[in-house]
Sequence to fold (671 residues):
Amino acid sequence: MTTSFIGRGSELVATRRALADHRLVTLTGTGGVGKSRLALRAAEEVRGTYSDGVWWADLSHLYDDRLFTAMVCDAVGLLDHSLRRPVEALCDWLADRQVVLVLDCCERVLDAARELVGELLTAAPRLTILATSREPLGVIGEFCLEVPPLSLGDDGDEAVLLFRERCAAAAPDVSLDSPESAGAVADICRRLEGVPLAVELACARLYENSVAEISERLTSRLDTLVDESMWPVRHRALRTAIGWSHELCAPLERLLWARLSVFRGPVDEADVQSVCAGGPLSAGSIPAILERLVAQSVLQRDGSRYRMLDTLREYGAMWLAELGEEQTLAGRHAAHFADMMAQAQAGWLSPQQVTWYGRISESHADLRAALDHLLTEDPETAVEMAGRTGLFWPCCGHLHESRDYLQRALALDTEKGPHRTQALWALGITLTLQGDHEAALRIGEECTFAAWQDHEPDSVLFAAHTVGLTRLMTGHPKIAYAVCDRALRACEDAPPAGPSYMCCLVIRAFALSAMGRLDEAYREASSLRRISLRHGEHWARSYADHQLAFIHLLQGRPEYAEGHARSMLASKHDIHDSLGIALGLDLLAGTIAVQGDGVEAARTSGTGDTYWRMLGHPNRGTPELGALREGWERRARESAGDNAYETAYHRAVEDDAERGLAHALQGHFSP
Fold:
C-alpha cells in the first residue's frame, strides 16, 4: 500500500493494547472500511517487540479452502519438502518463534482459518495472530475489535482529511478552500459514512467532476444502484460509491472491470489483453482503459502489474454474471495460463529462463485457478499443463501443491502420450524431493513404460531423469548413472535441445562424482556448464557449478571451489530455487572452512541450516554429502574455536534468511 495513513489514532492504540493482552486479535468490519490498512500499520508499530518480526498472509486471492494452508506457508517462508501435512510443518516452523502473523481477508476461508488458527495457537506458544475478517473467526480466546469508518464532524474530520489528501494526488489543480467546496467535501464524506474506500472512489472522480457535482450525484443515487439481495444494508455507503463509480465509467471501462474479476492476483497488460479482449473491447484499446481505471481507483498499480481490491473484484464478478460471461471468461483465463506454461517450457533453455521463473512465480494464484478449471472442463489440457509445472513448482518450493494437482490430473481418464508421460515425470521428481522414495520408484517405473510406448526422445529422457534422481537420492549412484547415460546415448543422433536433456546431464555429472570418478565428473560438469552458457540458462549451469566446486574442494583447490559455489548461489537465487540455495550454502561453508575462516564458515552454515529448516528436507541433498559436512564443520571449529563458532552460527540462524544469503553472495564472481 503506497498511500499514506490517515487518522485511526484511537484504533491503533486499541489494536496495540489488544495484541499485548491477547494472542488472537481479529479486526472486523465491512468491506472497504480499512481493516487491512489498520492491520498493516499496527503490525509495523509492534514489530520491534517481537524477536522474529511480522509475517503477512494476503488471503484476498483465495477462492478455495484447499489452498489456504499452502498460502500461509508461502507467507512465512516455509517451503516444506517433507511428507508431513502442511499444517504439521507450519506448526513446527512456528513452534519456537515470537512473531505476529497477520491473516488478511479471512472471510474468504472462514472455516479453514478457524481450524488452522486453533492449531497454530496450541502448537506455538509465542505466536500472536492478527486477523482481518468481515466476521469473527469464532476461535476460543479470540478478541474482536470492530473497525469503524473514519471520524466525521464533531468526532473529528478524518474522512475529510483523507478526501483532501487523495484530491491533492488525483486532481492537484482542484482547490477545496472555498466555503462551498469545503461544505461539499464534508457532505460527500457524511453521505459515504466515512468509509475510506468509498471516499477514495468518490475522490477519484475529481478529474472530471467538481466536488459540488459529486455531492449532488451521490445524493440522487444513494439507494438506487445495487440490488440489496447482493449487498447487505450495512454496506450502504460502500455500495453507493462503488455503484456510482461503476455508473460513471464508460461502457468499455465497465466491461473491462467485469472481465478483470476473473483474475486471482496481479496481472500485466498482456494477460489482460489476452483474456479480456473480445466483442466491442479490442486488445489495442485495453492499455488506455487500464490507466483510466487506475485513475478512478478501480485498479491499483503494483509495479508493472495491475491489481484490484477484493471488494471491487466482487462487484465486477457480480456484473460479469449479469452479462452471462462467467464461463466464457473462465475458459479464456484457463487457456491463457495453459499457454503461458507452454511458452515457459519452450523458453526454459534460453536467456529468458530467469524471466520465466519470475513470471510463473508472480502468476501462481492464476495458474492454480486455471488448473482447477481445466481439471473439470478440459482434462487433456489439464494433464499437459500440470506436467509443465514440474519445471518450476518443485524447485520453487510448491511440492505439496505440485503433488496434489499432478495426482488429480493423472487420475483423469486421458489419452496416453508424451504429455501424460511428462506429468508422470513431474510427479516422480516431486515425490523424490519429498522423500517418498518408494512411491517415486513406482511412478518412475510407470513413466519408463509410458516413455517406451511414446517412442519420443523427450519422454525417454524425462523417464530416465525421474528414475535417476530417485536412485541418486537413495544412495545408488551407479544405477542413476546407468539409467541416464543409457537414455542420453539412445538420443545421441538427435539430442533434444530442451529441459529433459539437461536434466539427465545433471544426474550423470552428480552420479560420477558420487562414485568417486572425479576426473570424469569434472569433464562432464565442465561440458554441462559450457552448454548452459551457450543457451544462457541458469538451472543446469548452477548444478554444474555445484559439481565443479565440489570436485575442486575434494582435490585441494578451495579458492576455485569458492568461486563456483558463489556462482551457483547467484543462479539459484535468480530462479528462487530454495533447495539449490541450501545445497550451495553448505558447499560454500565447506570452501570457507577449508581456507581457515572458521567464523565466516559458521555464519554461512547457519544461514544454510535456516534454509534447510524452511525446506524440512529429510536428507539435505545426496547421501555422500553428510560425512563431508561433518568434516567441514570440524575444520571450522578448529579454526575459530568452539565459542566463536557457536556465536557466529547462532547469530546467522536467528538472522533473516535473505539477509544471510545476501551476505554469502558478496564477492560473487563468474569462474
